[in-house]
Structures are given as structure tokens and as C-alpha cells.
Specification:
two-stranded antiparallel ribbon, alpha/beta, 300 residues
């Protein structure tokens, strides 16, 4: 069995197409396709279902990919062990994260990491879809949830989000600043994943948890858009306090409203597939990511 053929097959699965895999490997698409066909012929099974739009793993292909991916990872580790890390870490780390978390939290961390390790390439997919890390060839994910139930994954908690009430200075000048929870009912509020143009906000303050019914001109399913709507003076919104440093508040002319109140969000996890061995670049990046995110000011 030619391990180069196996490695090319794994790269095709991870890239999702012969064209992308060829570009990453520096090989023509035709050569990559012939290599995979030769591997299928030697095994006597079809590994990939080819259509004009996409590639799909067959049942045999999925099993073969999962097994060989671990073997290739072990070979990668063995190579690094023999060289005693004498060479600069290199290669691609594939990760996925929700769009709003990626936009709000990951850019600075990834920029710092790639500046320190310029030969490691981060392939980041921002999506609201829950990705199957093993089947789709991802090395790690950032996930937000109250808890994670998939025991086949290794999850490390890095923080818990907290939300505060914010509005632009222009909006408050136009509509006034609410002084009590009850006054929020008379204001325009930016709603997040609500229904029917109204929502119940559960806020914790000096008297414990209180609930206020609010309404507004906009309901949206992406937190980044909530932030942009608040910045543009559309209304009062619940925004993650971790993002809003004093400098950012000044630049965006945002004001925290009823600062004694806050709303609890979910927890943030770094998730990796369970594996006895994984490429050193993945371990290096995941540890850097965990350390960097844990250092953020989760509560303000």
C-alpha cells in the first residue's frame, strides 16, 4: 500500500474536492483523481461518490478515512518526535466556529498565533451549522452551549458569556435613558432570535432575577448584527460584555444602560475529536487558543 496515495485521499476528503486538494498539494486535479481511483482499485471498494457538485464518502470510505486519518496523524507525530521538533511547526489546522464568535473573539488570537508560527495555516469555517468534526475532517471547533453532551469529543471550557444592556449615545439623546427595568418597555429594543416582535429579557440585578417584556423594530439571529444595529442607533440591545472594552465603547459611542443589570449567556468550549495522537500543530494551536480565550475579560 502506497502511503502517499492514502495521504492524498485524506487530503481530498478534508478539502472537499479534487481541485482544492490538488491546489494544496501542488498537483494537477487529474493526478489527484487518478491517485484516488488507483487506491480504490487496490482496495477493491469505492471510497468516494462523485457528483458534479460535491464529493461524498461511501460507508467504506468513511470507515477508511477515520482509520487512516489516525494512522497519518501518528506518522506525523513520529516524524516530529524523530526530528525533536528541530524544524519550525508547519501545516494546516482546520477549525470551525459560529460566525458571531469568530467575528468577535477569534481574529486577534489567530493573528497573534500566525505571526508567531507563520508556517502554520489556519483554515477557519464560520457557520451556524453543527459540524461533524471527524466526518468532515476538522481538527477542532469553538462551540457555545450550556453544556456539551457528545462524549466522543474532548471539550475544554474557556469561559462563560455575560450580557449587558447597551445603546448608542445618539439613541439615548433622542429617546432618553431608561432608569428602571420598567422603563425598558417604552423603548425600542433589538431582539435576538425572538418571535412575534417581542421578547422576555431575564436580567439579574440588585433584587435578583427580574423579567421584562420588550419589543422593537428588529429581530435577528446573528449577534454581530445586533451589535451593528445598536451602534447605528436603532435601539437598546443585549450585547456580550467581553467584547466591549472601554476603548471600544468610546470609539463606537456606546453607553451601558442600567449597568447594575446583566444577563447570563452560555459557556464557550474548545472541542477536539478524541484521539490517542494528533498532529503537533493542532495541539500547539488548541493550547494557544485555550490560553488566549481564558485570558479574556469574561465578566465586566
Amino acid at each position: 500500500m502506497d502511503l502517499n496515495h492514502v495521504a492524498i485521499f485524506a487530503r481530498v476528503v478534508e478539502a472537499g474536492s479534487f481541485t482544492k486538494a490538488g491546489a494544496e498539494l501542488g498537483l494537477p486535479k487529474s493526478s489527484v483523481s487518478r491517485t484516488v481511483a488507483s487506491l480504490e482499485a487496490s482496495l477493491g471498494v469505492q471510497l468516494l461518490q462523485r457528483t458534479t457538485r460535491k464529493l461524498n464518502l461511501t460507508e467504506a470510505g468513511r470507515e477508511y478515512f477515520e482509520q487512516t486519518r489516525r494512522i497519518l496523524a501518528e506518522l506525523d507525530e513520529a516524524t516530529l518526535a524523530v526530528s525533536k521538533l528541530g524544524k519550525e511547526p508547519r501545516g494546516t489546522v482546520r477549525m470551525t466556529a459560529p460566525f458571531d464568535i469568530g467575528a468577535l473573539m477569534l481574529a486577534d488570537t489567530i493573528a497573534t498565533f500566525t505571526a508567531k508560527y507563520p508556517r502554520i495555516h489556519i483554515d477557519l469555517s464560520l457557520t451556524a451549522r453543527r459540524v461533524d468534526l471527524v466526518a468532515e475532517g476538522f481538527d477542532l471547533a469553538v462551540r457555545a452551549a450550556a453544556r456539551l453532551s457528545d462524549s466522543s469529543l474532548i471539550a475544554t471550557k474557556v469561559g462563560s458569556t455575560e450580557f449587558g444592556l447597551f445603546a448608542s449615545g445618539a439613541y439615548l439623546e433622542r429617546r432618553g435613558t431608561p432608569r428602571t427595568m420598567e422603563e425598558l418597555k417604552r423603548h425600542c429594543c433589538i431582539l435576538f432570535r425572538a418571535q412575534g416582535g417581542a421578547a422576555n429579557w431575564h436580567l439579574t440585578g440588585p433584587r435578583g432575577e427580574e423579567v421584562v417584556s420588550v419589543k422593537g423594530p428588529l429581530n435577528v439571529d446573528e449577534m454581530l448584527f445586533v451589535s451593528q444595529a445598536v451602534e447605528r442607533g436603532m435601539g437598546i440591545g443585549l450585547l456580550p460584555t467581553i467584547r466591549l472594552t472601554d476603548k471600544q465603547l468610546g470609539e463606537q459611542q456606546l453607553v451601558r444602560v442600567l449597568p447594575e443589570y446583566r444577563a447570563e449567556g452560555g459557556s464557550l468550549f474548545i472541542v477536539l475529536p478524541a484521539a490517542r495522537h494528533r498532529p503537533a500543530r493542532v495541539t500547539l494551536f488548541s493550547e494557544f487558543l485555550i490560553q488566549s480565550l481564558r485570558a479574556l475579560p469574561w465578566g465586566r
